[in-house]
Amino acid sequence: MSKKPSPQAEITSLRELIERYNHRYYVLDDPEVPDAEYDRVFRALQELERQHPDLITLDSPTQRVGGAPLSAFEEVKHRLPMLSLDNALSAESMADFDRRVRERLKLDGEVGYAAEPKLDGLAISIRYEDGVLVQAATRGDGTRGENVTQNVKTIKSVPLRLKGKGWPPVLEVRGEIFMPKAGFAKLNARQRAQGDKEFANPRNAAAGSLRQLDSKITASRPLAMFCYGLGEVEGHDMGDTHSGNMALLEGWGLPISPELKVMVGLEACTAYYTDIAERRDALAYDIDGVVFKVDRVADQQALGYVSRAPRWAIAYKFPAQEEITVVEAVEFQVGRTGAVTPVARLTPVFVGGATVSNATLHNMDEIARKDVRVGDTVFVRRAGDVIPEVVSVVLDRRPHKTKPVMMPTHCPVCGSDVIKPEGEAVARCSGGLYCAAQRKEAIKHFASRRAMDIEGLGDKLVEQLVDREMVDDLADLYELSVEQFAGLDRMAEKSAQNLIDALAKSRETTLPRFLFALGILGIGETMAANIANALGTLDAVMSLRLTDLVELKQSQAKRLREVLEEHADRKTPIAEVIVPLPGLKWFTHTHALLLAERFESVGDVLQADADALANTPSVKIEGVGDVLAEKLVTFFKQSHNREVIDRLVKQGIHWPAIEVAEAQDQPLNGKTFVLTGTLSEPRDAVKARLIALGAKVSGSVSKKTDYVVAGEAAGSKLTKAQDLGVAVLDETGLGKLLDSLK
Q1: Looking at the domain assignment, is residue 74 inside a domain?
Q2: Which domain holds residue 487?
Q3: How much is the pTM?
């Protein structure tokens, strides 16, 4: 009979296991076990430590949760200064740096540089003694920083005890604390939900999180760390190269940049910089440039330092993504769905590689939250191809007597009333296609590649067609002649004929594409496919009623009668019942319209019992809830829309028939698929085929997922599927599965 291990042995084993799990998950991005198994092991360690508190040590994973709040941070003097880097802001500056390095080293050949992205975070120094984390400090002024040990210990990617063997008795590593983009988005979503102030950017969020006096708050924030260098090292000879030393750190469990490479010569460095710049927006974290360091340690020592910066390293910065400028005016634009969007007109400023003079303000709620006013000095951010946005206001520079921005009461294009539906953040022009702005955007959407795919009908042409009053609605497009198109600016007869041919080609489409092209608010490609596959014909879609889609349960009907008895006059038309009713948060405008299809007044509703009020929808469409059902039904009720659709069909727009099967008869009914990686055909096409067979196609993997279809370069979704034991199919396997259903 084997002897039961001692509590100390069990605790040591569990700690090593948890740190291995943490390293795989937070450093290697390669989870070894599901979350449930990690939680089970963690709880087992907590229970053992509860039973044996004398065995708790500072490097236990249970100590990451944070200690008692501090009244202030202690000052820490760095044993070796934490230096800054000189910046290169152009190719010429980078070339000058390389030239100076070669001249000082008296080299005729090229220099090897360790290259890695420059993280936009907060510099940190972490000290290990005998392999255990004993201190962490911020850069501060480079000589003295703040003791943030408790907070850094809550960061899961930072090992509390070094792995392996051979590490120095004293090892001080330098690195960058940052907040990944996904974690930043979740943190701000949580801040919004709690009514707290949002962070302007991941760097501010990381800095604010690391400098919390209550480390439990830091523990709740999604921080990470990459090491980029060494501080004090005692009792051990490190490697001959910087890249080699970083590999040693990685072997001891410390996270380093996965992008770290050695580039030989200026040309290779420039290529690395260009590659990282192109991939910048796809990286999981914010960066603001690339750091190049002479790789050989002996060469670094020979080059030495100047002032507070090393001569052997440089930060080749990207063009700034945030700059300060002034709001000269706020104007309002009208989109395809009538959304009235505020836009800030700015004093032009160069940011993110381009001159920016306009920035989105999103909606009035955002304007109020950020309190943006004309005349304000503001931070403007531009990332890649993302539309520039106003991040925050510099209140100290606000001029006197500024006034809050107000939403216009009438559309700036057509003069129709601007309305803001209950519960929505977006205000809309009520003019519909009467509004020229909405008409232009509706036609652009209709002609787009994923809709009717009318090649050659670009934005400039659409604007001319509407401005010259040649097109009032979508159907007018198919009535235009070669001569009319040829009369437009920059249109010759050949290009006009090409456009007529493209219109003719677009007449052959699919019902999902046609429904998507109509531009119904809330109906994207997936939803259009769901609707088409559930109903089969355009007539069935246009005949939809709310009673077909929206359910009123018996229990809801009973409670509704009780509330109406107390709060509404019997003569009031049911469609005019004020919502939300007291005590009926679920009762929406959609439910009022649902009842209005069957009852004229509150009195009629009160005369019906709960059974008569309740209804069971006859049509089930995946993803169509109450609000979307109302928008869908309302669109097809409007006589103008019906007339336009009728004309489009009469002009020859057609599609293959769709055979609608009962949900229970569809071969993939109840099965959930997730698509990941690069497939040989457009993912939307695969998705539509699966939906047509009754499957649900999800964007995330869970225990409820039945199949993951993995193409080339499949990433974290494939890994999670393997961890959860979900069936994984390549394209060949998917083809075989679909063939077996025929």
Answers
A1: no
A2: 431-506
A3: 0.51
